[in-house]
Amino acid sequence: MATHMAAALKNAGHQIVEVFSPSLQNAALLAYHVRAEAVDDLEQLKSTDLFLIAVKDDAIEETAARLAKYQTPVVHTSGATSLAVLEKYISGAGVFYPLQTFSKIREVDFKTVPLCIEANSAELKQMLMELASTISNQVYEVNSNQRRTLHLAAVFACNFPNYLYHIAQGLLGDAKLDFNLLRPLIMETAAKVQDNLPNEVQTGPAVRGDEQTMREHLKLLEPDQYLQQVYRLLSEGIGKMNKT
User: Fold this and answer.
1) What's the whole-model pTM score?
2) Which end of the chain is more exposed for a tag (fewer CB within 10 A), N or C?
């Protein structure tokens, strides 16, 4: 995420002064691409308008505590971490959360990425809203409670389906079938919810109440009771959704 965001900020004309990582080599890789200085010491940072923390959630608080002495506004980029974690140490605290899945091997058009903004002052909020609007066409003010729910929803919408793709890949592999067979189906399923709500376009044996097909599926899954349980739970959920 740091790689994509840094590139988006640079391409929008913003100056990235320094890139920090405990590994100077890692910092240098990103710093080179955004024409910044690579640093591995948080105690010797240069003056800047904003510090942006893009680390694992469990490292945010420690990083914020070490940045407090600079009296510079600090934002984190986490979906699951409250603004209050920064406010313990920072007077100008904010959140700059991009709702997207990022991989170094795949480019993302940052203009299409929703950016969720929160700040503990009107002045900082305005600054972050203006900054966000230079790299994204979708900027939202989202508080910490809303963002936690948004992050949870994103796990259901992104991380869990990808795990299910992995299960499907394994089933196909066992049958000596290519995962490419599923790619058009995956694309069409994702395309449907761009214009409709998920419950309006649900398909499959569970929504039809096709008990015979589901029994056959469960029989195929008999060697793996865990996958049988996953299948039952998801099918029950789809059935309940169809009744509401």
Assistant:
1) 0.88
2) C
